[in-house]
Design a protein that fits this description.
The chain is an alpha/beta fold. About 35% of the residues lie in helices and about 20% in strands. The strands form 3 sheets. The chain has a 10-stranded mixed β-sheet with strand order 3-4-5-6-9-10-11-12-13-14. It has a two-stranded parallel ribbon with strand order 1-2. It has a two-stranded antiparallel ribbon with strand order 7-8. Strand 5 and strand 6 (about 105-110) form a beta hairpin.
Length: about 375
């Protein structure tokens, strides 16, 4: 992990946390605003470069604190301009962060855990198993590193206009670290992003959705992938604990807040699994009462998977049915698949404490 046992990593602190930190060392809390501007507006991580702090304070910070983002281990650029970074945290673990450029926006997809504990069957990240949660500094540090690499300017050329927690991990299972990172993304002294430009994606952790609603104003995306419980349990095992009816009720509560406009439902189309006209019609009935948008995602294959992507004509037919039923539905364009940066392909490097990846390799070997 960044820093040492005797040094606090200031990337782990949001605005309120940084004010508390300075008060705890006998300094005026407004020092937090000065440091935030240096770090997130000017990209400065060397205390000596923070010239509006006194020499004594700069020296003291050097003794008790660090500003250490994750280390960039490698960078790959796709033929379509998508960029993927492998970022390491020590101990052999690493996660992947992806930047997707478009004509009018630049979206950064960040991770919240090393691996994922939920074991969704169609996701490469889930197949890697789970190692640990990321710290706040390791989450927001991905954005800081990407901004530096891209030449993003907080008050100038904004290369990063949207941030989505759709990378490795289930963000709501790491709520206490994710929330300060969301706060820094929203804070004017941080990255200053509007609520609709920060999206948290969940597999359907109902208590976490309610907790998020009460804590901060950000956009919500839900990985749905099936319109009925039996099928969804095969794809998203979390559905056994929080079935679709409970999930839809939580989504209704989320958008009941006047600031929360709609929920984006993500639906990965898998050949012969969840892509029939019947599934589309059931999806219309399920979602028509929730202010929502539907994001249809062609399945992106990864080594060892038994699933295939739905044919293009079936994807188009599925989209036509749900749109005729009154839903707003778009088909996500596959980006970065040549560098395994597409949705569901992120793998990173996980020291798997669950031994799931070991079991999957053994099962694949015995099936040959």
């Amino acid at each position: 992990m960044p820093g040492t046992s005797t040094h606090i990593n200031l990337f782990d602190l949001d605005h309120a946390g940084l004010r508390e930190f300075f008060a705890s060392i006998g300094e005026k809390p407004f020092r937090a605003e000065q440091v935030l501007k240096w770090v997130y507006h000017h990209g400065q991580t060397d205390f000596e470069g923070m010239t509006n702090l006194s020499a004594d304070l700069r020296a003291r910070l050097g003794e008790i604190a660090v500003l250490e983002p994750p280390r960039v281990l490698s960078e790959q650029t796709s033929r379509d301009g998508t960029v993927k970074w492998l970022m390491g945290f020590g101990g052999g673990n690493a996660i992947e962060t992806v930047y997707i450029p478009e004509p009018n926006r630049g979206t950064l997809c960040i991770s919240s855990q090393v691996g994922c504990a939920l074991n969704c069957t169609f996701c490469s990240t889930g197949a890697q198993g789970f190692s640990r949660n990321l710290t706040t500094g390791e989450i927001i540090g991905q954005v800081w590193q990407a901004a530096r690499a891209l030449g993003h300017e907080r008050n100038g050329r904004r290369r990063i206009t949207n941030v989505v927690l759709m990378g490795m991990g289930e963000p709501l299972l790491n709520f206490d670290a994710v929330l300060p990172a969301l706060s820094l993304l929203r804070d004017d002294l941080g990255f200053g992003l509007a609520a609709r430009r920060v999206t948290l994606s969940t597999a359907g952790l109902v208590p976490g959705i309610d907790r998020l609603r009460d804590a901060i104003d950000v956009a919500l995306a839900v990985s749905l992938h099936a319109p009925e419980d039996d099928l969804r349990e095969q794809l998203v095992p979390l559905n056994r604990k929080y079935p679709i009816a409970e999930l839809m009720a939580a989504c209704q509560r989320y958008v009941s807040d006047k600031h929360k406009r709609s929920v984006t439902f993500e639906y990965t189309l898998i050949d012969g699994m969840n892509d029939h006209p019947e599934h589309a019609r059931k999806l219309v009935k399920l979602l028509r009462r929730v202010p929502s948008k539907l994001n249809l995602i062609p399945f992106n294959p990864f080594p060892g998977t038994r699933f295939r992507c739905s044919p293009p004509e079936r994807i188009r037919a599925f989209q036509e049915i749900v749109m005729a039923g009154g839903l707003i539905a778009t088909v996500r364009k596959t980006r970065g698949d040549d560098i395994d940066a597409a949705c569901g392909q992120l793998a990173g490097r996980v020291l798997d404490r669950t031994r799931r990846s070991e079991r999957l390799r053994a099962a694949a070997g015995s099936a040959q």
